[in-house]
Design brief:
By secondary structure, the protein is an all-alpha fold. The chain has helices spanning about 5-20, 20-35, 35-40, 40-60, 65-85, 90-100, 105-120, 125-155, 155-175, 190-195, 200-220, 220-230, 235-260, 265-285, 290-300, 305-315, 320-350, 355-370, 385-395.
Length: about 400
């Protein structure tokens, strides 16, 4: 496996840590700037909303630029964003600093997954893409405890410095060691937009958006929940988030194996399991020891949502992989925005303990959408990898590169 693929994985780790690392330090920021927790939640949801609205346009507009230098530009922008965030004198400046890199975020995701597949032979493409996705997955489960721990050890500003350093290292490595990636196959915008006619792709995208909304309605405020309901202090919350992340890495691996065997069954089992763990968190949230076990189980289940969303959202449109990937990023981040927004409303109106129920409702809706099919229904028991191989034989396009399994 070429080292450039691992460098792209490091870049993915950096940008996702910047996006989700805010979750663990949100209460500290709210207190520092004297804003409500739901207002502070816009540091996550505003970032995600910007991605949701601009993602596909950014990918289409930058389609002709050298892929190496586009990824370098994205990482450099994230370095600047973290520096500005660390020195922000007020909440407005912090909000602006957070939103600026969000415009380019989907470009890195789309370009890195496709570029990784092109760095190796076709048979090794799934492995290459899985390495990049591992950077994304690890960031979603470790980025939060890392930034939370640094904030507890020093202050919340130091958390942004750490995120900035990670992005700076990735930027330097990418600029120095990744070969130039000029665009040789120039695909017209019109030819890519043809995937927008696929009804099942839209069903899968909407289901992914609602699923991720259900995940983040509570997860965005997990630090607040553990503090107010489970009565944990800052150090204990950091440990819980680390436990959440550690079990999440194992869960991500298990979900990948399950998806390769049966995508639909895995999706439904995931949703039912996540609903169950939310109910457990509601019932036993006030008890320290039971909640510790629940957090570990929650993390194990939680992380699989990203792989499931990637698999279901992009598998329908291998003709335009970068656009398909950017649509998944947009809808996924729309889900983050929706979930964080709805969670904030519930917390403001009914208290943080009741936020669990909005997650359960959204997850139930997503579960119902797994029974909606547009056009000819595919065999859900067919492994994703074999579907991709079949398509590759017919069209010579490696769909498996974008399934994330």
């Amino acid at each position: 496996m070429k080292k450039s693929i691992y460098i792209m994985a490091l870049g993915a780790f950096g940008i996702i840590t910047t996006e989700f690392g805010i979750i663990g330090i949100m209460p500290a920021i709210a207190k520092h700037f004297n804003v409500s927790i739901d207002t502070a939640g816009w540091l996550l949801s505003g970032f995600a909303l910007t991605i949701a609205l601009t993602g596909p346009f950014g990918v289409l507009l930058t389609a002709r630029f050298n892929r190496k230098w586009m990824m370098s530009l994205v990482l450099f922008t994230f370095v600047l964003s973290n520096i500005l965030s660390a020195v922000a004198p007020n909440f407005t400046v912090l909000m602006i600093a957070r939103i600026l890199p969000a415009f380019l975020h989907p470009v890195f995701w789309a370009v890195a997954t496709v570029a990784a597949a092109k760095q190796v032979e076709a048979k090794d493409a799934p492995k290459a893409v899985s390495v990049v996705l591992a950077g994304l997955s690890v960031a979603t489960v470790l980025g939060v405890p890392i930034t939370t721990y640094v904030a507890e050890l020093i202050n919340w500003q130091a958390s942004f410095v750490v995120s900035g350093v990670i992005n700076l290292i990735a930027f330097a490595a990418l600029a120095a060691f990744v070969p130039s990636m000029p665009v040789t196959e120039k695909q017209s915008i019109k030819s890519q937009l043809v995937i927008l006619r696929k009804g099942q792709m839209w069903v899968n995208l909407v289901a992914t958006m609602i699923m991720i909304a259900g995940i983040f309605a509570t997860y965005s405020y997990l630090a607040e929940y553990l503090g107010k309901i489970s009565h944990m202090n800052g150090t204990q919350i950091s440990i819980m988030l680390l436990l959440f992340g550690a079990t999440g890495i194992a869960g991500n691996w298990v979900t990948g194996l399950a998806l390769s065997r049966n995508v639909m069954l895995t999706t439904r089992f995931f949703l039912l399991s996540l609903i169950a763990v939310h109910i457990l968190a509601y019932v036993f949230g006030g008890l320290f020891i039971p909640m510790t076990a629940i957090v570990g189980i929650w993390g194990f289940i939680h992380t699989g949502g990203f792989l499931i969303g990637q698999t279901r959202s992009t598998s329908e449109a291998p003709e335009a992989p970068e656009l398909a990937a950017s649509l998944m990023v947009s809808f996924g981040n729309a889900g983050v925005t929706l979930g964080t927004f709805l969670g904030g409303i519930v917390i403001t109106q009914f208290g943080v303990h009741q936020v669990i129920w909005i997650s359960i409702l959204l997850l139930l809706v997503s579960l119902a959408l797994t029974y909606v099919f547009v056009g000819k229904r595919k065999e859900v028991s067919e492994p994703a990898a074999s579907k991709a191989e079949s398509y590759q034989e017919e069209e010579a396009i490696p769909e498996e590169s974008f399934l994330g399994v």
